[in-house]
Design goal:
By secondary structure, this protein is mainly alpha-helical. The chain is 68% helix and 2% strand. The protein has one domain. A two-stranded antiparallel sheet has the order 1-2. The radius of gyration is 21 Å and the shape is globular.
């Protein structure tokens, strides 16, 4: 049985994530030389800490893991409520701080927990058939479960992470057999809600949107980071300026260069060849995640994999889009590449789940 699991495993997913992690470490090595490689050293530690999580999650049958999702979801909600009472860091209450430098961001691991719990709930509802999700009270229950963590994350506030949750939720519900009429209703509600939400956003969020629409509006203030990012990526041209040689990176114009704008560091110092390759790697990763969802042995595996695909899709699109000025800045990290312990552990767990599901796959289940 063990040999069969290894044979079925989609190893390309692990390879792609490993390559992205290595690229991230190289970029961090260059970006942190002025700080004595502090975050680079910490990221190596986080990689080593994340590997056991990946091995553990990929080894235990995901159906067993899902059984604990209810308890995990309850704990998550408690953590997301508790973090609202912490001292704000960079204007947001998103982290629990331990000691001088160790922080934990529950919303990161919460992505995985929410996906697992939603997969469990949707699957339970569909015992009598996949169309059961279209019953109003069942759909309302699913949406309530999904919206609670999103609401708490918005309260932090962390709009980028909240949208990441919503993207995963949309992906999962879309493949669950939902009727098209609900999709149209959601689109209409969204169209109505956008101007209302915009008018009630905090001032700094509105400023970011305005700067996105008109980058020259506040070049020394809210538009500074995006201008420096675009300058950095443009200066890298095809082959880059070389490690340790990027002007915006090494002179401190890019901020924060190890998290939100790590893609800009890579663009400036390694050029279009590197950034283009990274984009292709993410496309491969997301495509493989969708394939795992399509070939999973059961609905639960399918829903988990497609939710993970949604997470990676949003993070890739938003982070790369914001660094080149195509999307508003939201502070969303680039998976496996940006510095961050909570994010890295969550991403490795996602990879472990994809390996787990792929090793036990049998046939496509996206059928009636």
């Amino acid at each position: 049985m063990g040999k069969k699991l290894l044979k079925n495993t989609e190893w390309s997913i692990l390879i792609v994530s490993a390559v992205l992690t290595i690229i991230g470490l190289i970029a961090l090595f260059s970006a942190t030389q002025s700080a004595e490689y502090d975050e680079f050293k910490k990221q190596i530690q986080w990689v080593l800490i994340s590997i056991p999580f990946l091995i553990l999650v990929s080894s235990i049958d995901y159906n067993v893991i899902v059984r604990f999702s209810t308890l995990a979801y309850v704990v998550l909600i408690g953590l997301l409520i508790g973090v609202l009472f912490t001292h704000p860091i960079n204007g947001a209450r998103s982290w629990f701080k331990f000691g001088e430098s160790l922080t934990f961001q529950p919303s990161e691991i919460g992505k995985v927990i929410t996906i697992l719990f939603l997969a469990f709930i949707i699957n339970k509802m569909q015992i009598r058939g996949r169309k059961e999700i279209n019953k109003i009270w069942k759909l309302a229950l699913v949406m309530t479960i999904a919206i609670i963590p999103v609401f708490l994350i918005i309260r932090e506030p962390d709009y980028g992470t909240a949208v990441a949750y919503l993207t995963a939720i949309i992906f999962m519900i879309f493949v669950s057999g939902i009727d098209r009429k609900y999709i149209f209703i959601v689109l209409i509600i969204t169209a109505i809600a956008i101007p209302i939400i915009y008018n009630n956003l905090p001032e700094h969020a509105i400023k970011r949107i305005q700067v996105f629409l008109n980058p020259g509006l506040d070049e020394r203030g809210a538009g500074y980071n995006i201008m420096q990012s675009k300058l950095a990526i443009g200066a890298g041209e095809v082959f880059g300026m070389g490690l340790f040689k990027g002007n915006q990176t090494q002179l401190g114009f890019l901020h924060p260069k190890t998290t939100d704008f790590i893609f800009s560091v890579i663009g400036e110092e390694l050029g279009f060849i590197a950034t283009g390759s990274i984009t292709i790697l993410y496309i491969v990763l997301i495509t493989k995640a969708i394939y795992v969802a399509k070939t999973a042995k059961d609905n639960i595996g399918s829903y988990i994999a497609i939710g993970i695909a949604g997470i990676f899709f949003f993070h890739m699109t938003e982070n790369i889009g914001m660094t080149i000025g195509l999307l508003p800045i939201t502070g969303v990290p680039l998976p496996f590449v940006s510095y961050g312990g909570s994010s890295l552990i969550a991403n490795f767990i996602c990879i472990g789940l994809l390996l787990n599901i792929s090793s036990r796959r049998q046939k496509a289940i996206f059928v009636e």
